[in-house]
Amino acid sequence: MQRHRANQSHHYTVKQPTTLLPFLLEAMPNRGRNSVKSILERGQVSVDDHIETYYKYELHPGQTVSILPNKVARREGALIGLSILFEDDDLIVVNKEAGLLTIANKREKRRTAHYQLMNYVWKQHPRNRVFIVHRLDQDTSGVMMFAKNEQAKRKLHDSWQKFVKERAYLALVEGKVKKQSGTITSWLKETKTHRMYSSPTKDDGQFAKTHYKVLQTNDNFSLLEVHLDTGRKNQIRVHMHDLGHPVVGDKKYGAKTNAIRRLGLHAHTLSFIHPTTGELLTFKSPAPKVFWLQSK
User: Fold this and answer.
1) Residues 68, 76: contact at Cβ < 8 Å?
2) How many other CB atoms sit within 10 Å of the CB of residue 182?
3) Phi and psi dihedrals of 23, rounded to 5?
4) What letters, b where the CB count within 10 A reaches 16 and e where it falls short, cover 49-74?
5) Are 160 and 281 in contact (CB under 8 A)?
6) Rounded to the nearest 5 degrees, what angle is found at the Cα of 162, between the Cα atoms of 92 and 168?
7) At what angle do helices 20-27 and 33-41 cross, to 10 degrees?
8) Annotated catalytic, 229?
9) Using CA atoms in the order 241, 180, 144, 187, what is the torsion angle rounded to 10 degrees?
10) Residues 6+ away with beta carbon under 8 Å from 125
């Protein structure tokens, strides 16, 4: 590895399986363990296309680890864990990283996509607001949309199926999926512990329909492109479990592995009609490199 200088950005290619902290300690031999952990906590380290702060994050050959100077990290990381793909007076479309909550929960109030975007629009004008129109699970990455006014929010909420023309995901699942494409339908219900499941009885729950296509596969993992006809809670995760190939890292729905230290689910494409202009807009976020590396 090249010698690290604190006032420059540095990029390193992972040569062999390891975890992030020992990799960084080798990259920065003049810094102690606590100093390197502080660099991680400040959001100065990225792996491929996302900021990574977890020191035990597993690295795989071919990935790129970048270290930013603190000043650059603060400037580029005004929004931590998400980047803006599109913005106008009505909407903000973002690319969210895995690990970032969409909205606050009991344990985390501030480090969420919604809170950060609220602060972002407040800086433009104190009366500006951001509204939730759909969500991604905390450990799901990819494209999502927010409204910037009540009118846009109401239109999207009231006629979501009318406005949204395509929602495509990439799912890294366990095992070799032999059928190259297929469709899964079921009626989804929720237990008292908030776990979704497919009811064996027709019309017993919310109807859900998922289409999938195999993009790449090996004996251990398969990478699927998944399209939703309906947008139910945990729909893909339940349907992949029903298929016998749970999403990687999804212990809640039967996964036995966590090879990538995150949920193997990525919102790849969001195509919708703009609620004000009527224009068809399409946004894409490429699959994390580790999805391809695991399934090749």
Assistant:
1) yes
2) 13
3) -60, -45
4) bbbbbebebbbbeebebebbbeeebe
5) no
6) 65
7) 110
8) no
9) -40
10) none
First CA to last CA across the chain, in angstroms?
27
For the chain, domains (ranges, CATH) are 10-76 (3.10.290.10), 82-295 (3.30.2350.10)
Which H or E element spans position 191? none
Q: Which two tokens stand for residue 247?
A: 């999403």
Residue type, 175: G
pTM of the model: 0.74
Q: Across the 296 residues of the chain, what is the mean pLDDT of every consecutive 10-residue run? A: 57 92 92 88 76 82 84 57 92 93 80 88 84 92 96 94 94 96 96 91 93 96 95 94 96 92 95 96 93 91
Quick one: tokens of 148?
């910037």
Return the structure tokens found at 149.
């006014």
Q: What is residue 15's three-state secondary structure? A: coil
Of 49, 137, 229, 242, the active-site residue reads: 137
The answer to whether 130 and 147 have CB atoms below 8 angstroms apart is: yes
248-265 burial by CB neighbour count: b if 16+ within 10 A, else e? bbbebbbbebebbbbbbb
Single-letter amino acid, residue 15: K
The identity of residue 192, as a single letter, is K
Distance of alpha carbon 132 from alpha carbon 113, whole angstroms? 10
